[in-house]
Automatic annotation (TrEMBL):
Molecular function per GO: aspartic-type endopeptidase activity
SUPFAM superfamilies: Acid proteases
Domain Peptidase A1 intervals: 90-423
Stored PANTHER family: ASPARTIC PROTEINASE CDR1-LIKE, OS07G0603500 PROTEIN-RELATED
An individual GO BP term: proteolysis
InterPro entries, per the entry: Aspartic_peptidase_AS, Pepsin-like_plant, PEPTIDASE_A1, Peptidase_aspartic_dom_sf, Plant_Aspart_Prot_A1, TAXi_C, TAXi_N
Primary localization class, coarse: secreted
Location in the cell: Secreted
Keyword ATP-binding annotated: no
Protein name, UniProt field: Eukaryotic aspartyl protease family protein
GO cellular component terms listed in the entry, alphabetical order: extracellular region
UniProt keyword annotations, A-Z: Aspartyl protease, Glycoprotein, Hydrolase, Protease, Secreted, Signal
Signal peptide (residue range): 1-18
């Protein structure tokens, strides 16, 4: 599978870099759906069904990759398609260096290290935007092998050489590979500089990377994540509000908030603990039970152990812990009837001409937090006249609460107090 992400700050595609909003030391930035007209990855020749199909394929590949990283021998089918190792669903724009250079990256809560392509290149994939030139930045500094940042790389650190520079290597499940120098530089969020941000300066980036993206923005929970670094600006907190796919033909973008601006308060907020597990990159939650409407989804097995599901912004679909899935499907079919045998692209449960008024909401009962998912998020139109369930069994892989179910919610991560919070919202009003 593939994983990628790169930093934040919006540039209006048609104009100049937008300034983030500053509220009590925090800031907010546009989060761009890769399939929206504002995205450099947008292909106007694709129909909505084409985009759904590609999102499904990215999702299955990503789920397989994340499962392998978590130590599972995943049975989730990894579909090898030419959509590049940039497989996340949302983008951000930033600038790096002094003077600053514009960078676009794919946002990834399943990765820690932020990286961008740098000159000189042993091998660099073709990129539309400019590559970083470290020697041109007065604030660039390569990190030594003895630095805390280098030690935090763990298994991704390459052996030190006579230069004493910290080198990294990271691979993806499609055999794409990135290598480079670990460094610090100034990152610019609009007109606001944040100094000494650790990132990967990639000099050898081989594989199926797309020319429209410069690299990855790592928003995972590990020590070299962007969220763990500039404490004075971000304070271990970020949140986002994702606009539904049905709105992606507009000029609105979703929002991502950092620092104190990421606080979620008021009525209808529910919070669940973040569970510490390996790898530390992932945001683990505990799913205790589920409801289909008012019907309990039972399990033949004992309650799953703590941290049995991760929440991820880069995976479209949701993968439910295996012990819940059979009764989940059984309960849904009891309520709305048996599905059609026509199941495109490997979906498990599909209906012809589905009336959403017949579909109940599904409640994910996390520890301390009931998160209600409305019917329109439960089924996705795949081919003409056919809608399919957006939930799958993790099949001994990693259970994932994907971004489709997170749309029209404020979702907040607090790494200091170790919790994730949810609040229903109309995300078009947060744009």
């Amino acid at each position: 599978m593939k994983t990628l992400a790169l930093i934040f700050v919006l540039i209006n595609i048609s104009s100049c870099l937008a300034k983030p909003n500053h509220i009590n030391g925090g800031f907010s930035i546009d989060l761009i759906d890769r399939d929206s007209p504002q995205s450099p990855l947008y292909n106007p020749a694709y129909s909505q069904l084409d985009r759904v199909k590609n999102a499904f394929r990215r999702s299955t590949s990503r789920a397989s990759h994340l499962s392998k990283r978590a130590g599972f021998t995943s049975n989730i089918s990894s579909i090898n398609i030419n959509i590049s190792a940039v497989f996340g669903d949302y983008l951000m724009y930033i600038k790096i260096g002094t003077p600053p250079v514009k960078v676009v990256g794919v946002v990834d809560t399943g990765s820690d290290l932020t990286w961008a392509q740098c000159k000189p290149c042993v091998y660099c994939y073709e990129q539309l935007g400019p590559l970083l030139v470290p020697s041109n930045s007065s604030t660039y500094r390569a990190l030594s092998c003895q630095s805390k940042g280098c030690k935090a790389l763990d298994k991704n650190q390459l052996p030190c050489d006579a230069s004493n520079k910290c080198h990294y290597e990271m691979g993806y499940s499609d055999l794409s590979l990135i290598r480079g120098d670990l460094a610090v530089d100034t990152f610019w969020f609009g007109s606001t500089p944040v100094k000494n941000v650790i990132f990967g300066c990639g000099h050898d980036n081989e594989g199926t990377f797309g020319e429209d993206a410069s690299g990855i923005i790592g928003l995972g929970g590990g020590p070299v994540s962007l969220i763990k670094q500039p404490d004075y600006a971000i304070k271990g907190k970020f949140s986002y509000c994702l606009i539904p796919y049905s709105n992606n033909k507009t000029n609105q973008t979703s929002k991502i908030h950092f620092g104190t601006h990421a606080n979620i308060a008021g009525p209808n907020v529910v919070s669940t603990p973040l569970i510490k597990k390996d790898p530390s990159t992932f945001y683990y939650l505990t799913l205790e039970s589920m409801l289909v409407g008012k019907h309990n989804v039972s399990t033949e097995f004992p309650l799953s152990k703590e941290g049995n599901m991760i929440i991820d912004s880069g995976t479209t679909l949701t993968y439910v812990p295996t012990e819940f899935y059979p009764d989940l499907v059984k309960t849904i079919t009891k309520v709305i009837g048996n599905g059609t045998e026509l199941r495109p692209w490997g979906f498990d449960l599909c209906y012809k001409n589905l009336n959403l008024d017949r579909v109940p909401s599904v409640t994910f009962r996390f520890t301390g937090a009931d998160v209600v998912v409305p019917p329109e998020k439960m089924f996705l139109k795949t081919i003409k006249g056919v809608s399919c369930l957006t939930l799958f069994s993790s099949e001994d892989g990693l259970a994932i609460f994907g971004n489709l179910l997170q749309q029209n919610m404020l979702v907040g991560y607090d790494l200091v107090n170790r919790k994730v919070s949810f609040k229903p919202a109309d995300c078009t009003k947060h744009a």
